[in-house]
Amino acid sequence: MKPYYLLILMIATTILVLPACDQKQTGTEKAMNKVDDALDRRPGEKARDAAEDASDKLEDAGKEIKENVKDATN
Known about the structure:
By secondary structure, this protein is mainly α.
């Protein structure tokens, strides 16, 4: 049973230590990200744009459904 305790201890330690490695973005990095977004130079830009478009279409469809239900019940 002791090896299991050691494994659990190692996993718990890893889970607690890894978030400390996260580095916050500086003001310059944030500005660069906004510029890249505005100029469509982000990594995976086509995939992100497709996801944003799909999200917008789903949102519009949801609003349309709500309006149709509201009209049908009145």
